[in-house]
Each structure stands twice: as structure tokens, then as C-alpha cells.
Amino acid sequence: MGNRRLLTSTVCGLLGALTLTGCAAIRSHTSAKAKPDPLAQPREFHALRFAPDKVPRIDGDFADWASVPESCWITTADMRHDWKKDRLKDVLRVCIGYCAETARLYFAVDVDDNYLKADQYRSPSADPYYPFIDDIFEVVVDADRSGDDFVYFKKSLTPEENRRLCGCHAQNYHIYLVTPPETEHAWLWGDQKWLLGKPYAEWAHQVEGKPGGPARIRLEFYITPFNYASPDGPEGSARAVLTPGSKIGIGWLRLDDEFPDKTGRKLGDCYFFGSKLELYKDADDCYDVTMDP
């Protein structure tokens, strides 16, 4: 009888230990699965639909966006940042719109900059690889969400071959917040310079303040997304179709150069809208944006 009690006690003890171990394992597994992905998109983002006769006038005046609810503006709370110290104090708000009939994306970019850097403008035509020194809003569009690299610096290829590969299945626009009169307002990686003018793109801004100090910038523009943008021109390209309910990949970087010296380009602070800073060359890092009905 004593041996039977001992055996029963031992079995019960083992079962209890196994049960506790199993519960702990389940809790641990559940906890691990519940841990949020730090690179996940924080929430759903939408592009407002404009009727063809209601599209914003590209003049830097946000009157056409006045009726947009505050919840539709994307703020720094939805963005990530890349700096070693908490130096960037700018206010940044962005609203996205689209028109299905014109197949264009419209942007309103509201920047309250503590130091506007706009005194070292370098023409993209003169230096196609490193023209950016001043403050820039850089936007990436991957219309068919094909992902993958779209900017190339392969050592096995010539500079011309790399340029012809850039910007084909996704486009990357670098838009100066402020430019001198009669100068190029934007540039992009690749040979698709035809994308930078009408009827495919248009830019305008209004500025309160001057370079070298605090300023409020209202940047307004439209761009035309392409599933394939040929370096040879629009004839061999595939224009994206924007339909209500569809999703496209969009990302951006607000490059804020805080350095007033003349020693060359120095990247200051950066807010970016996307999962990783590499979105400037990898479309996998863009966020999904839904076209509103």
C-alpha cells in the first residue's frame, strides 16, 4: 500500500510539473507572438479622392485642402526618425490625394522648419549624383507594390547602365523645399527626366521666412505614378491606374540639413515615412496607402 501511495504521488507530481511547464511554454510562446513588429506599418493610410474638376491648384496655397479632416493628415507621430540626438524639432504634416481620371497623386506638405537650409543649391544637371545639399522632401512611389531595389550602384556596371536601371518599377523624387528662381525644382534617380515636367508633374511652394533662420514652407505638387517608367520616354512606359480601394506603395524622407557651413553636404536630421530608411532605394520599405472611394 505504501509503495502504491508513493507511486501515485510521484506520478501526480510529474503530471503537475509537466502541466506547469506546458503552461509556461504556452505563455512564453503567446507572449513572443504578441510582441509587435517594430517595422510594421503603424496604421492604415489613405489618399483622398478628388473629382477631376476639384483637383488642387498647384500654387502652394492650401485653400484646396482646407476641408480635409485633421485625421487625414499624416504627422511625425506616424513617421520614424534617423538621428543620433534628439535635435529635430520641426513640425511636418503631409496629406495625400489622388484623381482616378487623371491618374495623378497630389501632395500637400506643411513644414515648420527651425532652420531653413536653402543657400547651397546645386543644379541636378550639373551634378546628377550628389546635387542635394539643401533641405529636401524626397518621395517614393511604388504603384504596383512590386517592391525590391529600384536604385542601383552596382560596381559591375557603368554609371550609365546604373542610371538606366534606376527608377523603372518605382520612382524616387527629390523636391527642394525652396529653390532659386528659374531653377530645377526636383530631380530623381535615373534617366526619366521626362517625369519632372508637365503633364506628369508640377510643383509650387509658399515660404514665410528666409534661408538661414526659421521658416514655414507649404509645398504642393502632383506626380504621375508608373508601373514601368522607361528611361527612353513615356512611349515605352506603363502608366499606373489608380482605382478606388486599390493600394499603392508610398514612402518619403524629410532631409533636414541643419549645417550652415560651406564644407559641403552634411546630412542633418531625417524623418521618414516607411519601415526603414532604405526606402529611398528599396520599395519593400514603403507603406501601403489605400485609394479612398
Structural class: alpha+beta
Biggest sheet: strands, sense, closure?
13 strands, mixed
> Helix amount, in percent?
10-25%
Order of helices and strands: HEEEEEEHEEEEEEEEE
Principal-axes geometry comes out as: globular
Q: What is the C-alpha radius of gyration, as a whole number of Å?
A: 25 Å
Mean pLDDT: 80
Low-confidence stretches: 1-32
Proportion of residues in extended strands: 25-35%
Individual helix count: 2
Overall domain count = 2
Tell me what the CATH architecture of the largest domain is.
Answer: Sandwich
CATH class descriptor of the largest domain: Mainly Beta
Distance between the termini: 78 Å
Number of strands: 15
The name of the CATH topology of the largest domain is Immunoglobulin-like
What is the gist of this entry?
The protein has two helices and 15 strands.
Explain how this protein is built.
It is a single chain. β9 and β10 form a beta hairpin. This protein has helices at 2-34, 159-165; strands spanning 45-49, 74-75, 80-81, 91-99, 104-113, 136-142, 171-176, 186-188, 201-209, 215-223, 226-228, 238-239, 247-256, 269-273, 287-291. The chain contains 2 helices and 15 strands. It has 2 domains: 1-32; 46-291, Immunoglobulin-like, CATH 2.60.40.1190. With 293 residues, the chain is α+β, with helices and mostly antiparallel strands. The strands form 2 sheets. Strands 1, 2, 3, 4, 5, 6, 7, 8, 9, 10, 13, 14 and 15 form a 13-stranded mixed sheet that branches. Strands 11-12 form a two-stranded antiparallel ribbon.
